[in-house]
Amino acid sequence: MQKHKMKSNLPIPLLFLSLLFSFSWAALGLTHQQQHHSFLQCLNRHFGNANSISTVIYTQTNSSFSSVLEFSLRNARFSTPNTLKPLVIVTASHVSHIQATINCSRTHGLQIRIRSGGHDYEGLSYVSQVPFVIIDLINLRSIDVDAENKTAWIQAGATIGELYYRIAEKSSTLAFPAGVCPTVGVGGHFSGGGYGMLMRKYGLAADQIIDAQLVDVNGKLLDKNSMGEDMFWAIRGGGAASFGVVVAWKVKLVPVPSTLTVFTVNRTLEENGTMLVHKWQSIAPKIHEDLYIRLFLRAVNSSQQEGKRTIQASFVSLYLGRADELIDLMQESFPELGLVKEDCIEMSWIQSIMYFPSDIPEDAPLEILLNRTGSAGIFKGKSDYVTQTIPETALEGLWQRFYEDETESLEILFSPYGGNMDDIPETETPYSHRAGNLFNIHYVVGWSEEDASESQRYINFMRRLYRYMEPYVSKSPRRAYMNYRDLDLGTNNIGPYTSYKQASKWGLPYFDKNFNRLIHVKTLVDPTNFFRYQQSIPSLSRG
Ligand SMILES: Cc1cc2nc3c(=O)[nH]c(=O)nc-3n(C[C@H](O)[C@H](O)[C@H](O)COP(=O)(O)OP(=O)(O)OC[C@H]3O[C@@H](n4cnc5c(N)ncnc54)[C@H](O)[C@@H]3O)c2cc1C
Ligand SMILES: *[C@@H]1O[C@H](CO)[C@@H](O)[C@H](O)[C@H]1NC(C)=O
Ligand SMILES: *[C@@H]1O[C@H](CO)[C@@H](O)[C@H](O)[C@H]1NC(C)=O
Ligand SMILES: *[C@@H]1O[C@H](CO)[C@@H](O)[C@H](O)[C@H]1NC(C)=O
Ligand SMILES: *[C@@H]1O[C@H](CO)[C@@H](O)[C@H](O)[C@H]1NC(C)=O
Ligand SMILES: *[C@@H]1O[C@H](CO)[C@@H](O)[C@H](O)[C@H]1NC(C)=O
Ligand SMILES: *[C@@H]1O[C@H](CO)[C@@H](O)[C@H](O)[C@H]1NC(C)=O
Ligand SMILES: *[C@@H]1O[C@H](CO)[C@@H](O)[C@H](O)[C@H]1NC(C)=O
Question: Beta 221-222 vs 291-301: how paired, if at all?
Answer without folding.
Answer: unpaired
